[in-house]
Amino acid sequence: MNSFMPAEWELQDAIQITWPSKKTDWKDNLTQAEKCFLQISQLITKYQKLIIIHAPFRNPKSLFTNKELLNICLIEANYNDTWARDYAPISIIENGIPTLKNFIFNGWGNKYSSELDNKLNLLLLRKGIYKNLSNVDFILEGGSIESNGNGIILTTKKCLLNPNRNNNFNFKGIENVLKTELYAKKILWLGNGAIIGDDTDAHIDTLARFINSNSILYVKCFDTKNPNFESLDKMERELKNFTNLNNKPFKLIPVPLISVIENEKKLPATYANFLITNKQVLLPTYNCPEDKIVINIFKNMFPKKEIEPVYCGEIIKQNGSLHCLTMQLNENTVAQNLFNHE
């Protein structure tokens, strides 16, 4: 297959993140949130490159050791949000050539300001960070799609078919964009599944993720009294009916939905929001009894990778988690001479 969207576990050039500052969501718990960003960054730089976008008044360079800085490229810019997953470019293999696609970001359906975020990718192209960038006139967030690396895209109707994204496209038109721009051979549409508190309109990376081309990890609610139970139960039934390109069912691995409450508000904490890097899996944890259970599940699922738990209790206060903060840039998409120059 000469054109396809690589799976997250395929070789990466770098991970991209956007650093928190007093002008972002984190202004009320900036010190605590920054600790999480720092831990994520330090884990990534053990083995691969990291691009950090930071505000002019908050350069995090002093937080890192000289050794860590060898794998870090710091870029000063202005931005609205720190959820890099949803506005950073999406890696594609196009006619055998790795490329980055720049979709439109509209603040999750015009819920939040996004003008500065939507300009970041073009800024990084001008600065020579990306080797190439292809603009696509379509609203799409990275957290809303999952690729198995073999022509299958997993997504949700609540997000991609929401009129607050691409209301000039009908269902067939949206499918055609995914097939044309992401080279999808088959699109798996979840009609159910949403976690209370999620303001992305049910991003797939909070619900169900490919862990290999024929296996899907998904969030399961075991408490029938939980208000999320019905929706996630229906989602599980949908997943059981999905098939791969050979019309065979996927292997399904459930992880428990947990309850994280802050100021009497349920937060959309999920273990599905993990990040696969070249040698690691960064797993969000929440100081819950289920953490140990899920860590063991991940060790069994990824025996060749280091499982790195990262406490994301501060991050989930803004309704997102670890995967939402990061974006992988696949092999041969980033200029390697950027590093070790700070």
Gist of the model:
With 342 residues, the protein is an alpha/beta fold. The protein is built from 10 helices and 18 strands. The strands form 6 sheets. Strands 3-2-1-18 form a 4-stranded mixed sheet. Strands 4-5-6 form a 3-stranded mixed sheet, with no helix packed on it.
CATH homologous superfamily assignment: L-arginine/glycine Amidinotransferase, Chain A
DSSP summary, beta strand count: 18
> How far do the termini sit from each other?
39 Å
Low-pLDDT sequence parts: none
Question: Mind telling me the CATH class?
Answer: Alpha Beta
- Give the C-alpha Rg: 19 Å
User: CATH fold name, please?
Assistant: L-arginine/glycine Amidinotransferase, Chain A
Series of secondary-structure elements, N-terminal to C-terminal: EHEHEEEHHEEEHHHEEEHEEEEEHEHE
Q: How much of the residues is beta strand, in percent?
A: 25-35%
CATH arch. level architecture: 5-stranded Propeller
Q: What is the strand arrangement across the widest sheet?
A: 3-2-1-18
Overview of the molecule:
The protein has 342 residues and is α/β, with parallel strands linked by helices. The protein has one domain: L-arginine/glycine Amidinotransferase, Chain A (5-stranded Propeller). Helix content is 23%, strand content 27%. The chain has 10 helices and 18 strands. The protein has a 4-stranded mixed sheet with strand order 3-2-1-18. The protein has a 3-stranded mixed sheet with strand order 4-5-6, with no helix packed on it. A hairpin with a 2-residue loop joins β4 (90-94) and β5. The longest helix is centred in the first third of the chain and has 16 residues, at 30-45.
